[in-house]
Design a protein that fits this description.
484 residues; Rossmann fold; binds glutamic acid; mainly alpha; 3 domains; two-stranded parallel sheet; Glutamyl-tRNA Synthetase, domain 3; Arc Repressor Mutant, subunit A
């Protein structure tokens, strides 16, 4: 059997859409599952879309995700160059060949004329190019004289073309519905419709994996493969990544690119794991997969036909799992950049300890810990908690119990001893633990959500600050209650 070879063929737009990255991942997994080769090819023939530095972004994303390629622009194999704009002579050579083989013809129509002709017709309109009737000799003479030209695909007016897709099955279309599109533009640049075929063939690609928006053009590509007498690759068209039931995830939605997600502090391992499951389902119940595990498990026949909705909450949950699986030291390294606004003199490692079990997205950290420098303003309503059975009156009472006896806690960083202090105190007064711990948590932060409870917070801000806040809370509550 031929060695499996797949390719990731991004256009350098400066933006790595999650859908494109997922295609890259599936290409990687399909190749690696069979010990095959994964290639990187830069599709930069659309000069208008070109963005400075965009190729570096592609390299960077590949490095971060670990989707390392066997051949690519900076890792040449036998079928380079791997950047399309450096392959122009090849496209010209094969376009001329295709004309000789009857699969294309030279066209002298001006693009404006073709567009004008198409206008007023609906999308099913098929442009019949008058140039297809010009003889090859005449066309070559005109070209030799310097007349601008394109190479346009010649499609039989009758008959059907079919192909089999691994995901979407057997697809058959009437040739009459296929548009005779431009393959080589007048500036010598190929269109995607031509370059993808020449390159996939010359690079020995066995499995063409791409978004299902290419499904409808694939019959046209097959006509070209057939005209050249080339083997048709295995097609794996993948379903779109959706924002909701009806709309594709797009740049406008935010969260649509690898970079957006990384900026939120989502780990690249979590992104890879999550997008693997967007359109592919493993056999068992397992959801957390390393890249190596994915390589082992992946199978084309479990790719789904229908689009999958990108669920940021699921991704966040998964990221939390990845963060908890790190060692404390690793987590601390990752969290450090998010501590930069803390002004108080606190032990950052202690913050990491409190945060690691609770963070889902690293970018949430600053907001989770913004009580460290100062509590939020006094807010009596926070003391009322139905489940904890607290209200401002009994909170004041509990805070006084705490302050009266807190001297018995010698070490504020000993979480166990500190917890025991609260539990014993509650037992002594014959109330549930929450009746004591909730008011303390509120007094120390005045926030509805905090990483950890009274013990972790006191641990982080230290004894002196804890006492100051408790006393302040007693003062504020007393004043508040006297005014009621
Ligand atoms: N350059 C194309 C794109 O970015 C690649 C499609 C393909 O994989 O063939 O959409």
């Amino acid at each position: 059997m031929k060695k499996v070879r797949t390719r990731f063929a991004p256009s350098p737009t400066g933006y790595m859409h999650i859908g494109n990255l997922r295609t890259a991942l599936y290409e990687y997994l399909i190749a690696k599952h069979e010990n095959g080769d994964f290639l990187l090819r830069i599709e930069d023939t659309d000069q208008e879309r070109e963005v400075e530095g965009a190729v570096d972004i592609i390299y960077d994303v590949i490095n971060q995700t670990g989707l390392h390629y066997d051949e690519g622009p900076d890792k040449p194999g036998d079928c380079g160059p791997y950047i399309q704009s450096q392959r122009l002579p090849l496209y010209k050579e094969y376009a001329d060949k295709l004309v000789d083989l009857g699969g294309a013809h030279y066209c002298f129509c001006k693009e404006e004329e073709v567009q004008a002709e198409k206008e007023g017709h609906d999308l099913s309109y098929r442009y019949v190019d008058p140039c297809r009737f010009i003889s090859k000799e005449e066309a070559r003479e005109r070209i030799a004289k310097g007349e601008p030209y394109t190479v346009r695909q010649t499609i039989p007016a009758t008959g059907t073309t079919s192909f089999d897709d691994e995901v979407y099955g057997h697809i058959e279309v009437e040739n009459a519905q296929l548009d005779e599109g431009v393959l080589l533009k007048s500036d010598g640049y190929p269109t995607y419709n031509f370059a993808n075929i020449v390159d996939d063939h010359l690079m020995g690609i066995t499995h063409v994996v791409r978004g299902n928006e290419y499904l409808s053009s694939t019959p046209k590509y097959n006509l070209i493969y057939q005209a050249f007498g080339w083997d048709i690759p295995t097609y794996v068209h993948v379903p779109p990544v959706m924002k909701d039931e009806f709309h594709k995830l797009s740049k406008r939605n935010g969260d649509a690119s690898f970079q957006d997600l990384r900026e939120k502090g989502i780990l690249s391992e979590a992104i890879i794991n999550y997008i693997a499951l967007l359109g592919w389902s493993p056999e068992g119940e397992q959801e957390i997969f390393s890249l190596d595990e994915l390589v082992k498990e992946f199978s084309i026949d479990r790719i789904s036909k229908s689009g999958s909705i990108f669920d940021i909450n699921k991704l966040k949950w998964m990221n939390g799992v990845y963060l908890r699986n790190k060692t404390l030291e690793e987590f601390h390294e990752l969290a450090l950049p998010y501590y930069k606004d803390i002004k108080s003199n606190v032990d950052l490692m202690e913050i990491s300890k409190a945060l690691q079990p609770r963070v889902e997205m690293l970018a949430d950290i600053p907001e989770m810990i913004d009580f460290i420098d100062a509590p939020y303003p006094f807010d009596a309503s926070l003391y009322t908690h139905k489940k904890m059975k607290t209200n401002p009156e009994n909170s004041l009472e509990a805070l006084k119990w705490v302050v009266d006896e807190i001297d018995s806690v010698s070490d504020f960083t000993d979480d166990e001893a500190f917890s025991k202090f609260f539990v014993d105190l509650a037992a002594k007064h014959e109330v549930k633990n929450g009746r004591v711990m909730w008011p303390v948590r509120v007094a120390l932060t005045y926030k509805a959500f905090t990483p950890g409870g009274a013990v972790e917070i006191a641990h982080i801000i230290g004894k002196e600050e804890t006492m100051r806040r408790l006393n302040q809370a007693i003062e504020d509550l007393t004043k508040y209650l006297s005014e009621q």
